[in-house]
Amino acid sequence: MAEKNIVIVGAGFGGVFAAKTLSKKLKSHKEYNIILIDKHSYFTYMTELHEVASQRVAPKHVQEDLEHLFYQNKNVKLLTAEVNGINKNDKIIKTTHGDINYEKLILAIGGQSNDFGTPGVKEHGFEMWSMEESLKIRNHVENIIGQGAAELDPVKRAQLLTIAVVGSGFTGAELMGEFIEQRRVLAQNYKLDESEIKLVLLEASPSILNMLKDRHLADKAFKYMTSNGVDIRLNSRVTGVNEDGVIFADESTLPTKSLIWTAGVKAKSFISDWGFKYARGGRIEADDYMRAKLDNDESATDIYVAGDTLSYVDEKTGPVPQTVEGAESAARTASHNLLADLGFGQAKTFSELVKYHGFAVSIGSHYTVASLMGLNFSGFFASLAKHGINLFFYSQIRSMYSIFHYMMDEFFRTENGRNPFQGTISRLGNVLWSTPLRLFLGIFWILAAVGGLGDLNMLFWQHGLASFIEIVTGAGILLGLFTWPLAVVSIILTITAWATNGFDMTHWFILLSSIAIMNGSGRGFGLDFYVVPLLQKLFGGLWYGKAKSIYDDLDK
């Protein structure tokens, strides 16, 4: 049977979701190839880029290698290439890799920052709609604050120590929230008073977070930022940017070397001549089934749209937002109807398949405003809800690897208290100091097995299988080999001894010591320093494959 290509352009939220959905549905239909094309070999969690820009997390935290995501999806082929155009008559996608025939096509190319033609933004400012742009901001802010700390001229010093963000939508508000927390770290590093680092949020309209229907939540976000020293300037329309700072409509200025533009999003400009019907922001209009509209206003029969490339207004929920759930709902509709075209099910409209659970806007790691499932709330629990939304997405793309590393990066590997728990559960403390406790615990179990504990011998065992398990547990913990699982065995042995031989305070000490050494103490003068990374590499490769900087699966 001749193979048929289902091509998805763009490995963002919509593209990855569509590829996963189609892969599952067409798993037993070997005649279909799903080809996922992107100019990067990784998926970027776009809604977390502000955390990278503000040094809250490492860049790899928001990158998920496509091989990891799709290694178990054998009917998905990855191609790292740029798309140059579409021949709709011959059903061909033109790429830097060459021409690719398609049976069905989903365009989920994503968006880019929209500066609305404001002079000087690209030359003298920063935008934040890609990993590359976030890294530029990350490096610039660190360097410019360092320069400001060393500047003796008060006027130049103030300019260097001023960070301005244009746009108070989700991206701008979340970025400013991160800067609130980063400011504290930068001030300590460069021996500054926090108040010297000026944070300014510029908004052209009379209010912030204007996409929120509940203005009470927007007011809470406003109060949180202002109470943390953010200068929020409403009705401040930026008309230009130069090397000295920001120029406003009333011709006043704000001296700064750090202008970050987050005020708008538009479709990628290179799709503008592909022969579709375009709406605001250069987005491709779609019909109720997410089929792309052609320039003659007819719906394409074999091309679908999702993500920030899409322009569609649902009669019930309004315009599809540039959010994760907006991208998912469009991708879900496109995938469902594409499958219906192929004879798998009945066509359904966007209204029938849309799923919006709500939103959460994090103003830094400690404070969030959220509206989920009809409930409005803010603060600590809203911050946990924001993480829950992110984890829910990862569960939908079926990546336990992503979920594990997300939890580690956002909760247990955080620096400077930047997690919802103020850093109290971070494991970045020096585990070297738990090494003596680990050595003690290992020796304890060996002595327990051979009867070397004196009066405490009666609390444990010195014969049979139990004694053997004590020796293995003690030796492994002593050597720092498989410390975490053997700590679990230590806990089980202690509880069993407690239940069998009666309670003694020694049991509590051993139980709590076993928990304490689970915090990576096997890597402090232990064999886990070598063994754990080796096992991660070995078994990770077997399950997730090997990450590459460029993919070309078409020749397989």
Automatic annotation (TrEMBL):
Major enzyme class: oxidoreductase
Entries under Gene3D superfamilies matching the protein: 3.50.50.100
InterPro entries referenced in this protein's UniProt entry, alphabetically: FAD/NAD-bd_sf (IPR036188), FAD/NAD-binding_dom (IPR023753), NDH-2 (IPR045024)
EC number: 1.6.5.9
Transmembrane segments: 439-460, 472-499, 505-522
Highest taxon of the lineage: Bacteria
Catalytic activity, as annotated: a quinone + NADH + H(+) = a quinol + NAD(+)
Alphabetized UniProt keyword annotations: FAD, Flavoprotein, Membrane, NAD, Oxidoreductase, Transmembrane, Transmembrane helix
GO molecular function per UniProt: NADH dehydrogenase (quinone) (non-electrogenic) activity
Domain FAD/NAD(P)-binding, residue spans: 5-327
Similarity comment: Belongs to the NADH dehydrogenase family.
Protein name according to UniProt: NADH:ubiquinone reductase (non-electrogenic)
Taxonomic source organism: Leuconostoc citreum (strain KM20)
Taxonomic path: Bacteria, Bacillati, Bacillota, Bacilli, Lactobacillales
